[in-house]
Every structure is written in structure tokens, then in C-alpha cells.
Design goal:
By secondary structure, the protein is of the alpha/beta class. It contains twelve helices and eight strands.
Length: 330
């Protein structure tokens, strides 16, 4: 067993993975204990896997998990946590914006008795309008909803005790709720300021379109966390493991049922309300308006139900498929 596992989800980061691994090697040599670095290739379309394959043939500390198709950051992190053999786990991005030199400080804070240490990109080097403003708003809302006062839920640079993070079920895009989920699992959480660099190579995978997705995630999280607080026995009692239904929600609905049914719910409810208000005086299309509103509410409830089914089966129905696992034998 290793002392430390570093997991790094990557998608189309061929130019970044080699220099990132070299930086990690330099830092980990100063730590002294055994370590492993797990790159999770989330279905990259460029030469990311080729570069990682070449590195894995030379470096026994490096392992590569390759997905059959793109499954998302949360799925990649879930795979990393599952395959990690270390007592301590570090997660970080693969775009060189997180700095490996912060790893010793994260581990030192973890050794003070904490179970999860979150990085805070206080001096964030991203575009203000498209990245920083949405992040500030999302973090404020998440803090209010979850009651966990973390400044930067979206920062991938975190340190975990393996015994805690392996208990947290992850699916969809729940990685931004790891601090809140860990708190429910009994974790003590701390936060430290970490370095954040501008992106020099490759392209960002995020934009303004994620704001709507985050809002839907927060709604789903409210329901899930209320069930999670009841404990696994309560969840199993009220929500059996429906494998086929879970696979439908997790794969056909792209791992986020509420995101699939949410737009239909919004359109139905909004259009129905407009028709009802605008045409109520003429008594025309009132029935159609009520049907649209009812359909919108039903779609929303079905999406929430799908979130519960997906969550209940997150440990049993994986929302990723591993194509290749590489590790050089020592």
C-alpha cells in the first residue's frame, strides 16, 4: 500500500500531462514516502493516452486508467478514488493550473486531524466574466444550501483520508459537493489558500453554460442530502436497487436525470403559466395550460426521482467504463 495517491482526471491534455507529472515527481521526492500518480483519461480525442502510455512504461509510480468514452469529471474522480491504494489521496486538475508544490501543505493540514482539506484559489487566474463570477455565485449558493462554508467548492486540488472519501458515493457531476457529502459522512474539513496559474496550453472545458447545470445540481443535492442523512439503511428500505432503471437514468440520461427532465419541466410550466394568465379571461386553452403546467411538474418530479435512483445505485452501477488500465510492474 502507498502512503499517497494522486488522482488526476484529464481530457484532451496531451501537452500538459508530461510536465505535470515531472512537477509532481519533484515534489513527491521531498515527501519521501511511497506514492502513486493515477491519470484518468476521460475519453480524450487527442494524444493524451499516447503520452501517458509512454510515461507509464518508464515510471513505476504512474498508472493510467482510460475510459471507453467521455464520462465527465465526477466519474473520472470516482474511478480514481476506487483504484487509489494510498492512505492519503490528493486530487487535482491536469491543466497545470493547480500547483503540485501545494501538496505538502495540504498533507500537513490533513495531519492536524482533518479528513478533507480543500484548496482555495484566492487569486484565481481565470476569465472574470465567464469563469470567476459564475464560480463566486455558485459557491455562495452552495454554501447557503449545504451549510458548509467553503470558499471554493470547484477547486479540484484537495487532500483526503482514503477511509472517508471512499465512503462518499459520486455520480453525475457531484464532485463540487464532495465537502458537503463528506461532512455528512462525519469528516472534519479545513481549507487553505493554494496557488492558481493561468492556463497556457489546451482549452478550458467550462463556460457560462454550466450555471444552469449547477442550479439543477443544487436542487437535486437538496433532496439527496436529506436522504443521505437518514443513512444507507433508510435509503435501501425506501428505494430498492433497481438495476435496469438505474442504468436508464445513469446512461440514457447522461448520468443526470434532472438535467434531462429539467428543461422540459421549465418549458412546460412556463408556457402553461403564460397561456393561463394571458388567456384566462377568454376561457380558451385553459385546459391545455393546466396540462402543460401539470406536465412540467410531473417532469420535474420524475427527474428528482431519477436522481434518487441514480444516487442509491452509485456504488453498484458505475457511470463509466474502463477500457484500459496501465501500470508498470516494479
Amino acid at each position: 500500500m502507498f502512503f499517497l495517491s494522486i488522482i488526476i482526471p484529464v481530457y484532451n491534455e496531451a501537452d500538459n500531462v508530461r510536465p505535470l507529472f515531472e512537477k509532481i515527481q519533484t515534489v513527491c521526492q521531498t515527501i519521501g514516502d511511497g506514492y502513486e500518480v493515477l491519470f484518468i483519461d476521460d475519453g480524450s480525442m487527442d494524444e493524451t493516452f499516447t503520452v501517458l502510455s509512454e510515461l507509464s512504461e518508464l515510471e513505476p509510480q504512474l498508472a493510467v486508467i482510460r475510459f471507453k468514452e467521455n464520462a465527465g469529471q465526477t466519474a473520472a474522480m470516482a474511478a480514481g478514488f476506487e483504484f487509489a491504494e494510498g492512505q492519503r489521496i490528493i486530487s487535482m486538475d491536469g491543466d497545470l493550473q493547480n500547483d503540485p508544490s501545494d501538496i505538502p501543505a495540504l498533507l500537513a493540514k490533513l495531519d492536524e486531524g482533518y479528513d478533507l482539506v480543500c484548496g482555495w484559489r484566492k487569486e484565481r487566474q481565470d476569465k472574470f466574466v465567464t469563469r470567476r463570477i459564475p464560480s463566486i455565485v455558485a459557491n455562495w449558493i452552495i454554501g447557503k444550501v449545504t451549510g458548509v462554508p467553503i470558499h471554493d467548492n470547484g477547486c479540484s486540488l484537495k487532500a483526503y483520508r482514503a477511509s472517508i472519501i471512499k465512503q462518499v458515493p459520486l455520480y453525475g457531476e457531484m464532485h463540487r459537493f464532495i465537502p458537503a457529502m463528506s461532512t455528512v459522512a462525519g469528516a472534519r474539513i479545513a481549507e487553505i489558500v493554494v496557488t492558481h496559474h493561468p492556463r497556457h496550453l489546451g482549452k478550458s472545458k467550462y463556460g457560462l453554460g454550466r450555471i444552469w447545470r449547477v442550479m439543477l445540481d443544487i436542487i437535486a443535492f437538496q433532496l439527496i442530502i436529506s436522504v443521505f442523512r437518514q443513512g444507507s439503511n433508510s435509503l435501501k428500505r425506501f428505494l430498492p436497487k433497481w438495476g435496469k432503471l438505474a442504468r436508464f437514468f445513469m446512461f440514457q440520461c447522461k448520468r443526470r436525470p434532472l438535467r434531462v427532465f429539467g428543461p422540459f419541466s421549465t418549458m412546460g410550466f412556463t408556457l402553461g403559466s403564460i397561456l393561463l394568465i394571458g388567456l384566462s379571461k377568454t376561457n380558451t386553452m385553459v385546459g391545455a395550460s393546466i396540462l402543460l403546467i401539470g406536465g412540467g411538474i410531473l417532469a420535474f418530479c420524475f427527474g428528482l426521482f431519477g436522481e434518487l435512483v441514480s444516487f442509491a445505485n452509485a456504488k453498484h452501477v458505475k457511470d463509466y467504463k474502463v477500457k484500459t488500465f496501465l501500470r508498470r510492474k516494479k
